[in-house]
Amino acid sequence: MVKAYTGSQGSKEARESLAEANKGYKEYTENMCVLESELENQLGEFHIKMKGLAGFARLCAGDQYEIFMKYGRQRWKLRGRIEINGKQVWDSEEMVFVPLVSEFLSVKVTELKSLANHVVVGSVSCETKDLFAALPQTVA
């Protein structure tokens, strides 16, 4: 409606209709934001537990990795290393995020090398809408 009234002649009725359409758009947008916020509050918590990196050909004893997760304004950075026996040790293994309906979860894995010669192993962004469930899920 706003687009139609903006492109029409500048009559008084068109200006009044444009103002009314803008007011309605703003009101509906505010209502949708309130509904989205209420839905997010009902979703509970979004727990993430680091189980380890997969990629047996790349993982070598002594390697150090940094994983950076971003979910809306929430962030989580964790560091880990591969021990001689192949076990992975992480500085923090769990994080709790507040669930967000319209945000993507982005994950970036970086191999830490000497003197800031870090190598980004991979990065991915995914929608979380399919992850909302009562039971735990494993995501690779």
UniProtKB/TrEMBL annotation:
<feature type="domain" description="FAM65 N-terminal">
    <location>
        <begin position="1"/>
        <end position="140"/>
    </location>
</feature>
<dbReference type="Pfam" id="PF15903">
    <property type="entry name" value="PL48"/>
</dbReference>
<comment type="similarity">
    <text>Belongs to the RIPOR family.</text>
</comment>
<protein>
    <recommendedName>
        <fullName>FAM65 N-terminal domain-containing protein</fullName>
    </recommendedName>
</protein>
<dbReference type="InterPro" id="IPR031780">
    <property type="entry name" value="FAM65_N"/>
</dbReference>
<dbReference type="InterPro" id="IPR026136">
    <property type="entry name" value="RIPOR3"/>
</dbReference>
